Amino acid sequence: xxxxxxxxxxxxxxxxxxxxxxxxxxxxxxxxxxxxxxxxxxxxxxxxxxxxxxxxxxxxxxxxx
Length: 65
What we know:
By secondary structure, the chain is α+β, with helices and mostly antiparallel strands. Helix content is 35%, strand content 17%. It has one domain: Factor Xa Inhibitor, CATH 4.10.410.60. A three-stranded antiparallel sheet has the order 1-2-3.
């Protein structure tokens, strides 16, 4: 009998898989100490980042994709 694979809810809140299979996530560092960071750094932190390699494979497994 095969065990049903469950989605890890912590990974579901943090990562998103696109239709083409790319794994995306929001950057960290936007919560506090905003005044100490430059405007250009804040803009780069706001952008959605792509995860590649073995880490992306692990996240897809966590999301049961």
